[in-house]
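Morning. Coffee machine broken again, so started the prediction first thing and wrote up yesterday's gels while waiting. Chain of 147 residues, entered below exactly as on the submission form.
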Amino acid sequence: MRRLPSRVQTNDAPGALLSIGAIARRTRLAPSAIRYYEAAGLIPPPRRVGGKRAYDSSVFEAIALIRLAQDAGFTLADVRALLAGFDDRTPASARWRVMATKKLADVTQRIERAQRMKRLLERLVQCRCDTLAECVRSKADALRQAI
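Came back before lunch.
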């Protein structure tokens, strides 16, 4: 029996359908990550050609969006909210503004905590106590202020 050639290609010629391997190579993602994004609803489900996933080039834009959001500190759950948690008529700028405002507050709190941790660690580096008990007694007030 003669096999028909698959329409799934490994290049990105206009209109070409791309295999998951081709997408993985171009994006430097594992195929399992691409399948995960698909299952999570973060990238559009691909067509099937001969039982195999066949993506169009729009998948690159979706993956770029995921990476942009992750670089800004958003989780995949946040990305899902960005994509589906708004009315379809909500412009991208309004979506980003809502999401970024929340994330900025979280990042600010994390930075403040990290700065307190740094101050505490700097004080602990200077510690000259012989025992931990002595250290806690003599520095309890200073340590509390640093935390």
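The domain at 1-74 is CATH 1.10.1660.10 (Multidrug-efflux Transporter Regulator; Chain: A; Domain 2). Going to sketch it on the whiteboard this afternoon.
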